[in-house]
Amino acid sequence: MRILLVASLLLVALPTPCFAVDAEAERNAGIGADQDGKPEEAIAHFSRSIEIAPDNDEGYAWRGIEEIKLGRFDAAVEDYTKAIAINPKEAAYYKSRGLAYARQGDPDNALADNRKAIELASDDASAYVNRANVYVALKNFDAAIADCNTVIDLVQNKRNKDRNDAEDLAVAYANRGIAHSALGHHAEALADLTEAVKRRPDAASTYVNRANVYINLKRYDKAIADCDAAIALVDKHRNTDGNDQRDLALAYANRGIAYSGIGKTKQSKADFAKARSIAPSLPIELPATTPHKDAAP
What φ, ψ does residue 253 adopt, rounded to 5°? Predict the structure, then answer.
Protein backbone atom coordinates (compact mmCIF):
# COMPACT_ATOMS: atom_id res chain seq x y z
CA MET A 1 0.00 0.00 0.00
CA ARG A 2 2.84 2.38 0.76
CA ILE A 3 4.31 1.80 -2.70
CA LEU A 4 0.95 2.44 -4.37
CA LEU A 5 0.49 5.65 -2.36
CA VAL A 6 3.90 6.98 -3.44
CA ALA A 7 3.14 6.11 -7.06
CA SER A 8 -0.17 7.91 -6.79
CA LEU A 9 1.49 11.04 -5.41
CA LEU A 10 4.05 11.01 -8.21
CA LEU A 11 1.33 10.81 -10.82
CA VAL A 12 -0.43 13.82 -9.28
CA ALA A 13 2.78 15.86 -9.04
CA LEU A 14 4.11 15.28 -12.56
CA PRO A 15 1.80 17.59 -14.62
CA THR A 16 2.87 20.86 -12.92
CA PRO A 17 6.53 20.79 -14.06
CA CYS A 18 5.39 19.59 -17.50
CA PHE A 19 3.15 22.66 -17.82
CA ALA A 20 6.04 24.89 -16.71
CA VAL A 21 8.34 23.34 -19.30
CA ASP A 22 5.70 23.79 -22.01
CA ALA A 23 5.24 27.47 -21.09
CA GLU A 24 8.98 28.03 -21.14
CA ALA A 25 9.28 26.25 -24.47
CA GLU A 26 6.60 28.50 -25.96
CA ARG A 27 8.34 31.60 -24.59
CA ASN A 28 11.64 30.45 -26.08
CA ALA A 29 9.95 29.83 -29.43
CA GLY A 30 8.45 33.31 -29.24
CA ILE A 31 11.85 34.84 -28.52
CA GLY A 32 13.24 33.00 -31.52
CA ALA A 33 10.45 34.35 -33.74
CA ASP A 34 11.15 37.84 -32.39
CA GLN A 35 14.82 37.52 -33.31
CA ASP A 36 13.79 36.34 -36.79
CA GLY A 37 11.64 39.44 -37.25
CA LYS A 38 8.31 37.59 -37.10
CA PRO A 39 6.23 39.49 -34.51
CA GLU A 40 2.88 37.84 -35.32
CA GLU A 41 4.40 34.38 -34.92
CA ALA A 42 6.07 35.52 -31.71
CA ILE A 43 2.74 36.76 -30.33
CA ALA A 44 1.15 33.37 -31.04
CA HIS A 45 3.88 31.60 -29.04
CA PHE A 46 3.71 34.07 -26.16
CA SER A 47 -0.08 33.78 -26.08
CA ARG A 48 0.18 29.98 -25.76
CA SER A 49 2.75 30.48 -23.01
CA ILE A 50 0.27 32.70 -21.16
CA GLU A 51 -2.54 30.16 -21.57
CA ILE A 52 -0.33 27.51 -19.96
CA ALA A 53 1.08 29.75 -17.21
CA PRO A 54 -1.20 32.80 -16.75
CA ASP A 55 0.60 33.87 -13.56
CA ASN A 56 4.00 34.22 -15.24
CA ASP A 57 4.81 37.88 -15.88
CA GLU A 58 7.40 37.20 -18.60
CA GLY A 59 4.86 35.95 -21.12
CA TYR A 60 2.86 39.18 -20.90
CA ALA A 61 6.02 41.30 -21.06
CA TRP A 62 7.36 39.56 -24.14
CA ARG A 63 4.01 39.80 -25.90
CA GLY A 64 3.91 43.49 -25.05
CA ILE A 65 7.22 43.99 -26.86
CA GLU A 66 5.79 42.54 -30.07
CA GLU A 67 2.61 44.60 -29.76
CA ILE A 68 4.63 47.80 -29.51
CA LYS A 69 6.53 46.80 -32.65
CA LEU A 70 3.23 46.30 -34.47
CA GLY A 71 1.77 49.59 -33.22
CA ARG A 72 -0.84 47.91 -31.03
CA PHE A 73 -0.27 50.21 -28.10
CA ASP A 74 -3.57 49.56 -26.28
CA ALA A 75 -2.81 45.84 -26.22
CA ALA A 76 0.75 46.51 -25.08
CA VAL A 77 -0.46 48.67 -22.19
CA GLU A 78 -2.89 45.92 -21.16
CA ASP A 79 -0.17 43.24 -21.21
CA TYR A 80 2.36 45.32 -19.27
CA THR A 81 -0.33 46.19 -16.73
CA LYS A 82 -0.85 42.45 -16.17
CA ALA A 83 2.90 41.86 -15.92
CA ILE A 84 3.19 44.67 -13.36
CA ALA A 85 0.32 43.23 -11.32
CA ILE A 86 2.26 39.97 -11.05
CA ASN A 87 5.70 41.52 -10.58
CA PRO A 88 5.44 45.19 -9.50
CA LYS A 89 9.18 45.49 -8.76
CA GLU A 90 10.41 45.03 -12.35
CA ALA A 91 11.51 48.44 -13.67
CA ALA A 92 11.59 47.29 -17.29
CA TYR A 93 7.82 46.74 -17.30
CA TYR A 94 7.10 50.34 -16.29
CA LYS A 95 9.63 51.59 -18.83
CA SER A 96 8.01 49.61 -21.64
CA ARG A 97 4.47 50.51 -20.64
CA GLY A 98 5.61 54.13 -20.52
CA LEU A 99 6.83 53.78 -24.10
CA ALA A 100 3.45 52.38 -25.14
CA TYR A 101 1.65 55.24 -23.38
CA ALA A 102 3.90 57.76 -25.15
CA ARG A 103 3.15 56.19 -28.54
CA GLN A 104 -0.56 56.34 -27.65
CA GLY A 105 -0.26 60.08 -27.10
CA ASP A 106 -0.70 59.82 -23.32
CA PRO A 107 2.26 61.80 -21.90
CA ASP A 108 0.98 61.95 -18.31
CA ASN A 109 0.91 58.18 -17.90
CA ALA A 110 4.15 57.87 -19.86
CA LEU A 111 5.90 60.24 -17.44
CA ALA A 112 4.45 58.45 -14.41
CA ASP A 113 5.70 55.08 -15.64
CA ASN A 114 9.15 56.38 -16.50
CA ARG A 115 9.43 58.01 -13.08
CA LYS A 116 8.57 54.65 -11.49
CA ALA A 117 11.11 52.87 -13.68
CA ILE A 118 13.80 55.36 -12.64
CA GLU A 119 12.78 54.98 -8.99
CA LEU A 120 13.28 51.20 -9.26
CA ALA A 121 16.43 51.34 -11.42
CA SER A 122 18.11 54.74 -11.30
CA ASP A 123 21.08 53.44 -13.31
CA ASP A 124 19.03 52.39 -16.36
CA ALA A 125 19.85 54.98 -19.01
CA SER A 126 17.03 53.98 -21.36
CA ALA A 127 14.40 55.04 -18.81
CA TYR A 128 15.86 58.56 -18.90
CA VAL A 129 15.99 58.37 -22.72
CA ASN A 130 12.29 57.51 -22.83
CA ARG A 131 11.39 60.26 -20.38
CA ALA A 132 13.43 62.79 -22.35
CA ASN A 133 11.43 61.81 -25.45
CA VAL A 134 8.22 62.67 -23.59
CA TYR A 135 9.63 65.94 -22.27
CA VAL A 136 10.62 66.96 -25.82
CA ALA A 137 7.09 66.20 -27.03
CA LEU A 138 5.71 68.31 -24.16
CA LYS A 139 8.18 71.12 -24.97
CA ASN A 140 9.69 70.84 -21.49
CA PHE A 141 13.14 71.29 -22.95
CA ASP A 142 15.08 72.03 -19.76
CA ALA A 143 13.84 68.76 -18.23
CA ALA A 144 14.73 66.91 -21.45
CA ILE A 145 18.26 68.30 -21.36
CA ALA A 146 18.65 67.23 -17.71
CA ASP A 147 17.60 63.65 -18.53
CA CYS A 148 19.93 63.53 -21.55
CA ASN A 149 22.79 64.76 -19.37
CA THR A 150 22.07 61.89 -16.97
CA VAL A 151 22.16 59.36 -19.82
CA ILE A 152 25.48 60.65 -21.09
CA ASP A 153 26.92 60.60 -17.55
CA LEU A 154 25.74 57.02 -16.91
CA VAL A 155 27.23 55.74 -20.17
CA GLN A 156 30.50 57.66 -20.02
CA ASN A 157 31.09 56.54 -16.42
CA LYS A 158 30.19 52.92 -17.24
CA ARG A 159 27.24 52.83 -14.85
CA ASN A 160 24.49 52.08 -17.37
CA LYS A 161 22.48 49.05 -16.31
CA ASP A 162 20.68 48.37 -19.60
CA ARG A 163 23.92 47.66 -21.56
CA ASN A 164 22.62 49.43 -24.64
CA ASP A 165 25.20 52.19 -24.46
CA ALA A 166 25.52 53.00 -28.17
CA GLU A 167 21.79 53.47 -28.78
CA ASP A 168 21.17 55.28 -25.49
CA LEU A 169 24.00 57.71 -26.16
CA ALA A 170 22.97 58.41 -29.77
CA VAL A 171 19.37 59.16 -28.81
CA ALA A 172 20.45 61.27 -25.83
CA TYR A 173 22.62 63.48 -28.04
CA ALA A 174 19.80 63.73 -30.60
CA ASN A 175 17.18 64.71 -28.01
CA ARG A 176 19.52 67.16 -26.29
CA GLY A 177 20.21 68.70 -29.67
CA ILE A 178 16.49 69.10 -30.39
CA ALA A 179 15.96 70.68 -26.98
CA HIS A 180 18.89 73.09 -27.40
CA SER A 181 17.61 74.03 -30.86
CA ALA A 182 14.14 74.78 -29.50
CA LEU A 183 15.70 77.00 -26.82
CA GLY A 184 17.71 78.89 -29.44
CA HIS A 185 21.05 77.38 -28.37
CA HIS A 186 22.12 76.76 -31.95
CA ALA A 187 25.82 76.09 -31.36
CA GLU A 188 25.06 73.50 -28.69
CA ALA A 189 22.33 71.97 -30.84
CA LEU A 190 24.65 71.65 -33.81
CA ALA A 191 27.36 69.99 -31.71
CA ASP A 192 24.91 67.50 -30.20
CA LEU A 193 23.18 66.60 -33.45
CA THR A 194 26.52 66.17 -35.22
CA GLU A 195 27.52 63.77 -32.46
CA ALA A 196 24.20 61.95 -32.87
CA VAL A 197 24.73 61.62 -36.64
CA LYS A 198 28.19 60.22 -36.03
CA ARG A 199 26.88 57.64 -33.57
CA ARG A 200 23.73 56.73 -35.52
CA PRO A 201 24.23 57.62 -39.19
CA ASP A 202 21.21 55.63 -40.38
CA ALA A 203 18.53 57.65 -38.50
CA ALA A 204 16.87 60.05 -40.92
CA SER A 205 15.28 62.15 -38.17
CA THR A 206 18.71 63.23 -36.90
CA TYR A 207 19.61 64.69 -40.29
CA VAL A 208 16.21 66.40 -40.47
CA ASN A 209 16.75 67.98 -37.05
CA ARG A 210 20.29 69.08 -37.86
CA ALA A 211 19.02 70.57 -41.12
CA ASN A 212 16.64 72.65 -39.04
CA VAL A 213 19.59 74.00 -37.02
CA TYR A 214 21.51 74.79 -40.20
CA ILE A 215 18.45 76.70 -41.47
CA ASN A 216 18.37 78.76 -38.29
CA LEU A 217 22.06 79.51 -38.81
CA LYS A 218 21.34 80.36 -42.49
CA ARG A 219 23.76 77.65 -43.60
CA TYR A 220 21.41 76.56 -46.34
CA ASP A 221 23.82 74.40 -48.36
CA LYS A 222 24.49 72.30 -45.24
CA ALA A 223 20.76 72.03 -44.61
CA ILE A 224 20.13 70.82 -48.16
CA ALA A 225 22.87 68.18 -47.80
CA ASP A 226 21.30 66.85 -44.58
CA CYS A 227 17.84 66.72 -46.16
CA ASP A 228 19.29 64.87 -49.13
CA ALA A 229 20.83 62.35 -46.71
CA ALA A 230 17.51 61.85 -44.89
CA ILE A 231 15.60 61.36 -48.16
CA ALA A 232 18.18 58.85 -49.39
CA LEU A 233 17.94 56.79 -46.18
CA VAL A 234 14.18 56.50 -46.53
CA ASP A 235 14.22 55.87 -50.28
CA LYS A 236 16.83 53.12 -49.89
CA HIS A 237 14.94 51.52 -46.96
CA ARG A 238 17.88 52.09 -44.60
CA ASN A 239 16.19 54.41 -42.12
CA THR A 240 16.30 52.87 -38.63
CA ASP A 241 14.21 55.34 -36.64
CA GLY A 242 10.93 53.78 -37.79
CA ASN A 243 9.17 56.97 -38.86
CA ASP A 244 9.69 57.07 -42.62
CA GLN A 245 6.73 59.18 -43.71
CA ARG A 246 7.20 61.96 -41.16
CA ASP A 247 10.97 62.00 -41.73
CA LEU A 248 10.49 62.19 -45.48
CA ALA A 249 7.87 64.95 -45.32
CA LEU A 250 9.95 67.08 -42.97
CA ALA A 251 13.10 66.50 -45.04
CA TYR A 252 11.33 67.84 -48.15
CA ALA A 253 9.83 70.72 -46.14
CA ASN A 254 13.18 71.72 -44.64
CA ARG A 255 14.88 71.41 -48.01
CA GLY A 256 12.15 73.63 -49.41
CA ILE A 257 12.96 76.23 -46.75
CA ALA A 258 16.67 75.99 -47.55
CA TYR A 259 16.05 76.37 -51.29
CA SER A 260 13.90 79.39 -50.53
CA GLY A 261 16.74 80.81 -48.46
CA ILE A 262 19.13 80.74 -51.42
CA GLY A 263 16.55 82.01 -53.86
CA LYS A 264 15.73 78.75 -55.67
CA THR A 265 11.98 79.33 -55.75
CA LYS A 266 11.09 76.62 -58.26
CA GLN A 267 12.88 73.88 -56.28
CA SER A 268 11.43 75.23 -53.05
CA LYS A 269 7.84 75.05 -54.28
CA ALA A 270 8.40 71.54 -55.66
CA ASP A 271 9.74 70.32 -52.30
CA PHE A 272 6.85 71.82 -50.38
CA ALA A 273 4.36 70.23 -52.75
CA LYS A 274 6.11 66.89 -52.23
CA ALA A 275 6.06 67.33 -48.45
CA ARG A 276 2.32 68.08 -48.44
CA SER A 277 1.60 65.07 -50.66
CA ILE A 278 3.45 62.75 -48.26
CA ALA A 279 1.93 64.09 -45.03
CA PRO A 280 -1.10 66.34 -45.65
CA SER A 281 -1.84 66.63 -41.93
CA LEU A 282 1.53 68.19 -41.06
CA PRO A 283 1.44 72.02 -40.76
CA ILE A 284 3.74 72.55 -43.73
CA GLU A 285 3.58 75.91 -45.46
CA LEU A 286 5.93 77.55 -47.94
CA PRO A 287 7.43 80.71 -46.37
CA ALA A 288 7.67 83.95 -48.27
CA THR A 289 11.07 84.98 -46.95
CA THR A 290 11.69 83.22 -43.63
CA PRO A 291 11.44 79.58 -42.52
CA HIS A 292 8.06 78.57 -41.18
CA LYS A 293 8.26 77.68 -37.50
CA ASP A 294 6.26 74.45 -37.98
CA ALA A 295 8.21 73.11 -40.93
CA ALA A 296 10.84 71.38 -38.82
CA PRO A 297 10.39 69.05 -35.86
Answer: -65, -45
User: CA 257, CA 224: separation in Å to the nearest integer?
Assistant: 9
Among the residue ranges 15-29, 173-187, 230-244, 262-276, the one predicted with the least confidence is: 15-29
Q: What is the pLDDT of residues 219-243, one digit of tens each?
A: 999 999 999 999 999 999 999 988 8
| Whole-structure pTM value | 0.83
The whole-angstrom separation of Cα 125 and Cα 229 is 29
234 occurs within a structural domain: yes
Residue 1 in 3-state DSSP?
A: coil
| Structural domain for 294, as ranges | 214-297
Question: CATH number, domain at 147?
Answer: 1.25.40.10
DSSP 8-state symbol, 282: S
What letter would DSSP give residue 55? Answer: T
The b-or-e profile of 202-240 (16+ CB within 10 A means b, else e) is ebbbbbbbbbbbbbbeebbebbbbbbebbbebbeeeebe
Indicate the helix (H) or strand (E) that contains 27.
helix 15-35
Give me the amino acid identity at 5: L
pLDDT tens digit sequence for 69-120:
999 999 999 999 999 999 999 999 999 999 999 999 999 999 999 999 999 9
Distance CA 74, CA 78 (A): 6
Residue 125 contacts residue 166 (beta carbons within 8 Å): no
Residue from 253, 261, 256 nearest 297 by CA? 253
Rounded Cα distance, 17 and 139, in Å: 52
CA-wise closest residue to 292 among 245, 260, 264: 260
